Amino acid sequence: MTDPDEHAPVAVTVDLVVLTVRDDQLQALTIRRGEEPHRGRWALPGGFLRPDEDLPDAAERELREETGLSADRFHLEQLGSYGAPDRDPRMRTVTVAYIALAADLPTPTAGTDAADARWQPVSRLLGTDDALAFDHSAILADGVERARAKLEYTPLATAFCGEEFTVTELRHVYEVVWGTSLDPRNFHRKVTGTAGFLEPTGATTTRDGGRPAQLFRAGTTRHLHPPLLR
Amino acid sequence: MTDPDEHAPVAVTVDLVVLTVRDDQLQALTIRRGEEPHRGRWALPGGFLRPDEDLPDAAERELREETGLSADRFHLEQLGSYGAPDRDPRMRTVTVAYIALAADLPTPTAGTDAADARWQPVSRLLGTDDALAFDHSAILADGVERARAKLEYTPLATAFCGEEFTVTELRHVYEVVWGTSLDPRNFHRKVTGTAGFLEPTGATTTRDGGRPAQLFRAGTTRHLHPPLLR
DNA sequence: GCAAAAGTGTTGGGAGTACACCCATGA
DNA sequence: TCATGGGTGTACTCCCAACACTTTTGC
């Protein structure tokens, strides 16, 4: 590092790509901006880093503030940082983006203090480059691509399911996020055969219709061997 | 985003994990600090983000300053950001880390203005948690893990080779980075059979001894299908 | 019984591994 | 001629996609 005196005044923010599967679609949480710039436009939830806060703590706090839910209901990981000099007309900002994956939430953004918060299908948001304020469309696109890629080699898809879920519900997550269809029989064999992916609860359910299906919890593995391919 | 007035004064830096393969080892570029804090200790190269500079531009500039080589000689990608409140005793800093992969350089850090710059084996640097100043040991560990993972499913190993290289030289990169040994015959078949990975130059060389080997350039694919497994 | 979804068996092809073998050079 | 590494052939195994088939529920 060189002389600190030459550093520019920079504001650091944390922005969130919060994804869920709702109504057979991958959806992202968006907030309507109440202030300039981009007043009235949709944006990703986020806010400024506080003086004594580490980056993951700031991301958790924002997540709580925007959704009213505790952060342990989510998978949260850092996506990347964005710092183009003109990305915010007010001042020089660098944002550290996080992605959060969640099960379908009972009521979107319950208990938030944001003026207007809404789930919107990712397909619609990514259809036009300026659907979101600032550079948030690019950040969302990166987040979605990260999520798609991680389904292949991590058990992350379970983060989109509730506490207990069936193999079919898990497969549905893959089909929606990847936009493909998968063979139910082979999918079943594959996920139940991968050690540490799923943990049986012993209970069954008929909520998907037909023969009762076993209920599972997420296992403890962090990586899938072998990976599930698209 | 909420009120900008509540934001803390934060300095943003860019730090680099510069990796190369030298002397049958994965090595990282380190700089001896000439100032407090951590004066005299080794650290990752890096510096403050300038007022009108985007993050990738800052990373490229630092790379040029520290190595004296143009940035197109490297593969450069963002690794992640680190912002623990106490990571720098002088002030609140958030650093955006990048990894740079390079071929073995003729003379380490030629033309740099850094007081003391040196390649050091990653195995030695990661042996003790405080081998590097600040949180740089953790950043280095993350960077090495990223590089190892990316060799599996991208053609990134070619970034460690020169402009033209043989299959054996490429295999050597894999063996050093992964710390494994690979079957030369099957490796040859695999990499030459993956479309877009390697592009033949038509020339041959005997620099590895034995029968002349074909020379290749890096191809255009960004992903390996199927992946090379460790 | 019938529809619907869960879950198992079987089979054929493709990819990975191990290793025998041949090729082309320098010394 | 021998050592050294480059490169091909081949057989065996294992995984996986495709799909027929059985099981267990609700209606």
From TrEMBL, chains A, B:
<protein>
    <submittedName>
        <fullName>NUDIX domain-containing protein</fullName>
    </submittedName>
</protein>
<dbReference type="InterPro" id="IPR000086">
    <property type="entry name" value="NUDIX_hydrolase_dom"/>
</dbReference>
<dbReference type="InterPro" id="IPR020084">
    <property type="entry name" value="NUDIX_hydrolase_CS"/>
</dbReference>
<dbReference type="InterPro" id="IPR054105">
    <property type="entry name" value="WHD_NrtR"/>
</dbReference>
<dbReference type="InterPro" id="IPR020476">
    <property type="entry name" value="Nudix_hydrolase"/>
</dbReference>
<dbReference type="InterPro" id="IPR015797">
    <property type="entry name" value="NUDIX_hydrolase-like_dom_sf"/>
</dbReference>
<keyword id="KW-0378">Hydrolase</keyword>
<feature type="domain" description="Nudix hydrolase">
    <location>
        <begin position="9"/>
        <end position="146"/>
    </location>
</feature>
<dbReference type="Pfam" id="PF00293">
    <property type="entry name" value="NUDIX"/>
</dbReference>
<dbReference type="Pfam" id="PF21906">
    <property type="entry name" value="WHD_NrtR"/>
</dbReference>
<comment type="similarity">
    <text>Belongs to the Nudix hydrolase family.</text>
</comment>
<dbReference type="InterPro" id="IPR036390">
    <property type="entry name" value="WH_DNA-bd_sf"/>
</dbReference>
<dbReference type="InterPro" id="IPR036388">
    <property type="entry name" value="WH-like_DNA-bd_sf"/>
</dbReference>
